[in-house]
């Protein structure tokens, strides 16, 4: 039993964020290069390029479920839940106010603490309830399949 999904942030938003970072840091870097701070200007341009590259990685939510674990990640950060810790999963719309926005968020939903991994402007996904009493939320473009995979994983305890 395996499930794998890459949930991408909408492309227009990705392009806008990367363009904003690139133009902003590039403009500041060029302004500093023309002035007396060439080293600082070069560093700002390099930092802007690295930030744009880093953003492109962080704007993809990767979800994997196999026979032992459920993993959801934005780059190196995310959530790993062992099969024996999963109580169950259910399809739900994203409760934006419970977690306070998009990205990797901490919050409470219906009195249960947990994390949300969500991409901007996406409303479909799955609640994953744990035996510890936590409620996590994962965005998904295929929420029914993800919930089924997580429930199968929980049933293998």
What string, H for helix and E for strand, traces the elements in order?
Answer: EHHEEEEHEEEEH
Which band does the percent of strand residues land in? 35-45%
Tally of contiguous helical segments: 4
Largest sheet report: 5 strands, mixed
- Please tell me what the overall shape is: elongated
Radius of gyration: 19 Å
Structure classification: alpha+beta
Rounded mean pLDDT is 83
Strand order of the largest sheet: 5-8-9-7-6
The span between the termini is 14 Å
DSSP, total strands: 9
Estimate percent helicity: 25-40%
The poorly predicted ranges are none
What can you tell me about this protein's structure?
- It is a single chain.
- This protein has 157 residues and is α+β, with helices and mostly antiparallel strands.
- The protein is built from 4 helices and 9 strands; from the N terminus they run βααββββαββββα.
- A 5-stranded mixed beta sheet has the order 5-8-9-7-6, covered by helices on one side. It has a 4-stranded antiparallel beta sheet with strand order 1-2-3-4.
- The longest helix has 24 residues.
- It is elongated, with a radius of gyration of 19 Å.
- The two termini are 14 Å apart.
- The model has no long low-confidence stretch (mean pLDDT 83).
Q: Which characteristics define this entry?
A:
157 residues; alpha+beta; 4-stranded antiparallel β-sheet; 4 helices; 9 strands; elongated
Secondary structure blueprint with pairings:
Elements: E1 3-8, H1 11-34, H2 38-58, E2 60-65, E3 69-74, E4 77-82, E5 86-93, H3 96-99, E6 103-109, E7 112-118, E8 124-130, E9 135-139, H4 143-155
Parallel strand pairs: 7-9
Antiparallel strand pairs: 1-2, 2-3, 3-4, 5-8, 6-7, 8-9
Helix pairs in contact: 1-2
């Amino acid at each position: 039993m395996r499930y794998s999904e890459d949930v991408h942030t909408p492309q227009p938003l990705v392009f806008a964020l990367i363009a904003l970072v690139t133009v902003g840091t590039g403009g500041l870097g060029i302004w500093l290069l023309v002035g007396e701070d060439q080293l600082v200007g070069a560093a700002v341009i390099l930092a802007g390029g690295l930030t744009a590259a880093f953003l492109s990685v962080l704007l993809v939510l990767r979800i994997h479920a196999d026979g032992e674990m459920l993993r959801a990640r934005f780059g190196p950060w995310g959530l790993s839940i062992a099969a024996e810790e999963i109580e169950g999963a259910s399809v739900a719309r994203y409760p934006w106010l419970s977690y306070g926005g998009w990205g990797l968020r901490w919050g409470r939903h219906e009195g249960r603490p947990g994390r949300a991994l969500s991409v901007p402007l996406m409303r479909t996904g799955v609640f994953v309830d744990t035996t510890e009493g936590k409620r996590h939320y994962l965005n998904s473009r295929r929420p029914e399949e993800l919930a089924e995979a997580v429930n199968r994983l929980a049933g293998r305890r």
